[in-house]
Amino acid sequence: MAISGSKGGIEIRAAHFPGRAPIDAYGNGGFRFADMSHKGSILCLPSGIHGWEPKTPPIISIHDIGRIVEEAGGIEILLVGTGTELRPLPQDLRAVLREHHISADPMSTGAAVRTYNVLLAEDRAVAAALIAVE
């Protein structure tokens, strides 16, 4: 979240970097990218990098992918970083993503970060849902 002052007091806004950027580092409960850092999990989407709080990490559910579905037209591959271990995606989640023509690949968060950076450099239609790891 970003905090800024205003005449009416403090305004709290959702964390968002309005661009695509490689992930420079991960760990200690967060990520570094674009000379910035974020504590917590993130979504890397065509619209930018967003702070994200899955409902039941490290397993994500259909309730966690609303923003991904909203941007489905710009996403072909979704990399899902499930923490330190590979965890399968629930079938209902896979079905919704397939309906939107998105191929989902779960993997550890470290592997997802590395793969995301490669596909981003290749200018592929990639997105990532990355659960923060310590």
From TrEMBL:
Transmembrane segments: none annotated. It comes from the Bacteria. InterPro entries: MTH938-like_sf, NDUFAF3/AAMDC. It holds the Pfam family DUF498. SUPFAM superfamilies: MTH938-like. CDD domains: Mth938-like (cd00248). Signal peptide: none annotated. This is NADH dehydrogenase [ubiquinone] 1 alpha subcomplex assembly factor 3.
